[in-house]
Records
---
Amino acid sequence: MSCEVDETEYTSLVASQMLYRWIQKAYVLFDDYDRRSLERFQLNTSQYRTLLLFENEEGKRLTTISDRLLLSKSTITRVIDELENRGWVERVPDPEDRRAQRVVLTAEGRRKRLEICRAHQQALEDVFQRFSDRQQEDLDRLMQNLCQSLRLSISSIDPIESDF
């Protein structure tokens, strides 16, 4: 069996690979940028992404955090331990399941989360200020389309529902 492709298919494959490489490169650069901008808070990106999940008072179960961030339960346990040692989160009994625990932000954690989010937002604005409003809107639309396409492709491989 041959793996030959015609010129049109080849052009499409090359374009797809180039888009993938640009997105991958942007991801790596954003990750590096996040690391550098979060250094002043002595946070890593996993800790920051975990803090972002706490939008309300009810908190989250460790398994939910693990699923949402696509990180192992042992990694999330370490992240939560580190945040707990700083006094930013605490584990509390889950009112819906007494065998489980929820992780909630402390008052200090809410204050630090807000401070860090504001600093991160400013860092992002520094990046995106180089784009016109129209370019930002176009990029937003394209990224939404890409995410939708990825969700559909993922569901065709693995029909388990995703939070992304």
Note: The chain has six helices and three strands.
---
Amino acid sequence: MLRYIATRCNDKTTKAPIDGAKITLEKSGKPYIAHTDSEGLYHLNACLEKDSEFARIRVETEGYDKYNRNITLLSNNNTIEEIHITKIQAKPKKRFDLVGVSTVLGTVFGFISIVIAYQQLAPNKQDCDPSYPTLCLSQNISNLKCSDIKDRNFKVKQPDTHNFDRDKNGIGCEK
């Protein structure tokens, strides 16, 4: 027996009709599909073989959570209760994280400062400190430590301007 089914689909919060929602009624593995109109109404023609049959109804539309429910269809009733669907909650936008930005900027500027300082270690070969013949460290920089340069185990002559050769064995910044 062919049964005409009609009802309405609304927004759960505002009770406003949902236009264009896809309604799928699945009964005994067979889908019956309709779309809501501007008033949220939809109509389906489903074939019922008994006085009551179980079915599943699904509603899908953009901006709303999917609706999925088991229902009972009765041969003497051509309506099912209204469907109320829930609007998807917008995810909160990420706040601009000043701590993270300052950490990144600090790291970037710290790296740039190191590069600039390293470049200042030896701007040209004529300015190289003679205490370090295998390196070219500027004579115009004072208070350098081993942690300020990348080189290790390099030759040191006296006077050791930066005290890289603490044990006076002629090798600077030993590992």
Note: The chain has two domains: 2-85, 98-172.
